[in-house]
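Researcher: Please translate sequence to structure tokens.
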Amino acid sequence: MESRVAAPGVCSRPTGRESPVVVGTNVMRQQAILRVVLGSAALCLGGFGGAAWAGGPTSESASSTSAARPRTLDDALLEVERSAPGFAGMYHDEKGRLVVRLVNATAAPAARSAITSVFGADKIPAAGVVTEPATRTFSQLKAIQERLTPEVLALPGAVFTDVDEKSNRVAIGVERAESRARVEWTLGRLAVDRDAVDVVEVGPIRPASVQSGWTPVAGGLQIETPGKYCTLGFAALQGGTLGFVTNSHCTTVQGGVESTLAYQAVYPWQVGTETTDPFYATGGSCPAGRRCRYSDSAFFRADAAISSRVVQTPGAFNLNISAWHEVTGKLLYPSQGQTVFKTGRTSGTTSGTIEWACATVNGGGVPDTFYCNYIATSGAQNGAGGDSGSPVYIFTANGVALTGLMWGAGSNPWNFAFAPLGGVEFELGIVPYCWGNVGC
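Model: Translation complete:
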């Protein structure tokens, strides 16, 4: 087997399994200035908790997901509405302002107070807050979405459902125009107010399938699992165990633990062993013929040195590494209109604006459905095969804040789909491994 050493700072593409890229011992030693010592670290557990709801797996659903569930963005928005009746949701506009939609304009002061109470004071951006009128409250739209989701997402060609706060409607994504007729027929049968629903053509979001070696390993670098090239998402702590997160579909069998081995960049440098990958649930509110989870994620115990950083490239499809960013925080559930970034082994660092937030999303060509996932769109291609598992993040003053794990990409418009960090933390029982060698 040929062994080749990649130039420092450059991601190279393996030409095939017969000629893998392997990191030489000297290179590994020279790059050890980034090494993070394995061992126990202090944990700062964070996240949402809450009761069961109609938009997730029920206790009767099979396997891993019990009545417990993560508290999602939509749950938080419903809480805001309880304190500010008439609240219809919020999003970020192109000027960076937080746009608050209200059925009753007099609720503006109460809404701002409730947003600060539920999300924290930092949810109010420096650009300020503006209000827009709305026809339906957030809870009214959420009820419509929950009613139609199980049947609509069981239809061929259906992609997602979402409460679209920007339009003050429920959005239904379909792969192509031919899929509209089935959706329209179903909406009529369910007697859903047609004026409350938009059907949009987005194309399928396909799980990204699966290049240079580095030590320690970090988020955004290529990993290899049996038969697949994927991307390492981010370092994480599960109790006292240090490891990393990538997609469940990058393991030997999606859902369930088979102790899949991961290599970076390719075999034979083993860097992790799969230890947590919850089974997918069926039944209950999971659409017929599909299996459901909150995130396409799996946890691997670290078998090599691992860093709390994520890598950045100069731009789309430029695979040279231009920066190593410390993970200094996290955002469990971003909002519609925010710009998020991801780094993957195929398309490098790209970005997208969150078009649909906390949507129920079907994987194209596979029977998987994910609750409260996100779709970030762009005017240019921002994802590709092999980017599966990419860390999704936002830039901060002193590094980046993790906010999700990419699992798929699509076109019409160009987009990537990701599970929010809140869902990943809930299903895997992890927290990100952050700057200072602690959980955050």
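Researcher: Any highlights?
Model: The longest strand covers residues 348-362.
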